[in-house]
């Protein structure tokens, strides 16, 4: 037998086994291609001999085991009542899956793990654009135009002017929807002290927005960007999350909230409809490409080079140079 | 439009295996692969579920959803597709086979 595929022995086989255990970047789906999210709660997640599995207990089916496609998932949201072992977490990290600890229903993000294997390309682009005031303003302008249409941000306008324009636009949008649903005057309020006395639209909007923040947070982390370095928002660990989430509110959460103006349980209903809407909206790939276009409009967003080095060294003149080589032997 | 299907049958009658191999390739015992139209796929699946007797069968075919495919099962087996907010994963019970069949 000379066919190597029938009897895989020796080094090729050992290599293949290692690759399956610790996959290379080329073997993992790109964030926009992979499955958007998996929400789990009241489960025990552990790593057994072969993979990561969740033990799900339900009244109808008893205790069942579900193997999780770790390498195909871009993020896992762990809701209340979840326990996870260190080995399972390590496998998620190795496969580049972001793990988020969230509140019930995937709203609120309490903590998140960042996969070690993530490339820092996008973090570097983000910090470069953020640290340069001119470029930061340009990104803020681009965000504004993404929301309200090309040509809506007058050239040379300051952030204060953009904020003013944004406020007017959002108010007009509220007014239009209030008219459509015939609910008279609407005023956005999110006072946590008088939470229960708020109208259903405000409650639904707050609840749906929190869901949106959780998903945007996951997408930003999955890209390796920092959620803290915002372009319009500032000084908050989630500033960039708020920036990006604002891009989708007019399409997603605001109309949804107004449609629930007569609901008796607006918060829970908003979460449920939001989840249904997401499936149709394909939000995660959209967030990823939007962030990439905002941070680097000229970037070519195509398939990453499988030969790409995972760790580069930085050189002020040559840019990124390959790591893992002894450069002392050079000229 | 014809699309690829994967059909796995376990412990089904011989006549069904023979019939399936007229449409599909039996690449390994009781695993069939082929490209057929949606109409043919529906007809084949209807015959499989009707003739499976005590056996089980699983059908996978491309679909316009996030995962890119859909699953169908016939008969009782330990593994069942479970829906996680639109994501299909496989749930199964670890206990003995007899236990799983009681459900």
From TrEMBL, chain A:
CRISPR (clustered regularly interspaced short palindromic repeat), is an adaptive immune system that provides protection against mobile genetic elements (viruses, transposable elements and conjugative plasmids). CRISPR clusters contain spacers, sequences complementary to antecedent mobile elements, and target invading nucleic acids. CRISPR clusters are transcribed and processed into CRISPR RNA (crRNA). Acts as a dsDNA endonuclease. Involved in the integration of spacer DNA into the CRISPR cassette. The lineage of its organism: Bacteria, Bacillati, Actinomycetota, Actinomycetes, Kitasatosporales. InterPro entries: Cas1 (IPR050646), Cas1_I-E (IPR033641), CRISPR-assoc_Cas1 (IPR002729), CRISPR-assoc_Cas1_C (IPR042206), CRISPR-assoc_Cas1_ECOLI (IPR019851), CRISPR-assoc_Cas1_N (IPR042211). GO terms for biological process: defense response to virus; maintenance of CRISPR repeat elements. Signal peptide: none annotated. Transmembrane segments: none annotated. Keywords: Antiviral defense, DNA-binding, Endonuclease, Hydrolase, Magnesium, Manganese, Metal-binding, Nuclease. The keyword RNA-binding does not apply. This is CRISPR-associated endonuclease Cas1. Its cofactor is Mg(2+); Mn(2+). Homodimer, forms a heterotetramer with a Cas2 homodimer. GO terms for molecular function: DNA binding; DNA endonuclease activity; hydrolase activity; metal ion binding. Mn(2+) binds at residues 166, 233, 246. Belongs to the CRISPR-associated endonuclease Cas1 family. The gene is cas1. The keyword Metal-binding applies. Its EC number is 3.1.-.-.
Automatic annotation (TrEMBL), chain B:
Pfam families: Cas_Cas2CT1978 (PF09707). It comes from the Bacteria. InterPro entries: CRISPR-assoc_prot_Cas2_sub. NCBIfam families: cas_CT1978. This is CRISPR-associated protein. It comes from Streptomyces kanamyceticus. The lineage of its organism: Bacteria, Bacillati, Actinomycetota, Actinomycetes, Kitasatosporales.
């Amino acid at each position: 037998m000379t066919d190597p595929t029938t009897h895989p022995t020796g080094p090729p086989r050992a290599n293949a086994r290692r690759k399956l255990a610790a996959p290379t970047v080329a073997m993992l789906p790109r964030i926009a291609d992979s499955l958007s999210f998996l929400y789990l709660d009241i489960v025990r997640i552990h790593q057994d001999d072969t993979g990561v599995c969740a033990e799900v207990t339900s009244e109808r089916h008893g205790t069942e085991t579900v193997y999780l496609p770790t390498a195909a998932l871009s993020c896992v949201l762990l809701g209340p009542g979840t326990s996870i072992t260190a080995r399972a977490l390590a496998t998620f990290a190795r496969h580049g899956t972001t793990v988020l600890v969230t509140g019930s229903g995937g709203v609120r993000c309490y903590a998140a793990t960042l996969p070690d294997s993530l490339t820092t390309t996008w973090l570097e682009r983000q910090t470069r654009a953020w640290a340069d005031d001119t470029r930061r303003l340009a990104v803020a302008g681009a965000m504004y135009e993404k929301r309200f249409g090309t040509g809506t941000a007058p050239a040379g306008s300051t952030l204060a002017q953009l904020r003013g324009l944004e406020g007017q636009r959002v108010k007009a949008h509220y007014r239009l929807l209030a008219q459509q649903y015939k609910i008279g005057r609407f005023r956005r309020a999110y006072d946590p002290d008088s939470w229960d006395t708020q109208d259903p639209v405000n409650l639904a909007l707050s609840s749906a927005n929190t869901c949106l923040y959780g998903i945007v947070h996951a997408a930003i982390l999955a890209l390796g960007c920092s959620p803290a370095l915002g372009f319009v928002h500032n000084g908050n660990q989630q500033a960039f999350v708020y920036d990006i989430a604002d891009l989708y509110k007019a399409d997603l959460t605001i109309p949804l909230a107004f449609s629930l103006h007569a609901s008796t349980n607006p918060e829970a209903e908003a979460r449920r409809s939001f989840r249904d809407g997401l499936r149709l909206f394909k939000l995660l790939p959209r967030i990823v490409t939007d962030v990439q276009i905002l941070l680097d409009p000229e970037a070519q967003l195509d398939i990453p080079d499988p030969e790409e080095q995972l760790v580069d060294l930085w050189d002020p003149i040559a840019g990124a140079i390959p790591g893992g080589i002894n450069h002392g032997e050079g000229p | 439009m014809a699309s690829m299907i994967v059909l796995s049958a376990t412990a089904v009658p011989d006549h069904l295996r023979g019939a399936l191999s007229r449409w599909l390739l039996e690449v390994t015992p009781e695993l069939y692969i082929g490209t057929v139209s949606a109409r043919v796929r529906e007809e084949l699946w209807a015959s499989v579920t009707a003739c499976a007797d005590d056996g089980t069968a699983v059908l996978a075919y491309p679909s316009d959803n996030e995962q890119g495919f859909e699953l169908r099962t016939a008969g009782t087996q330990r593994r069942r597709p479970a829906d996680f907010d639109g994501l299909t994963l496989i749930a199964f019970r670890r206990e003995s086979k007899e236990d799983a069949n009681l459900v």
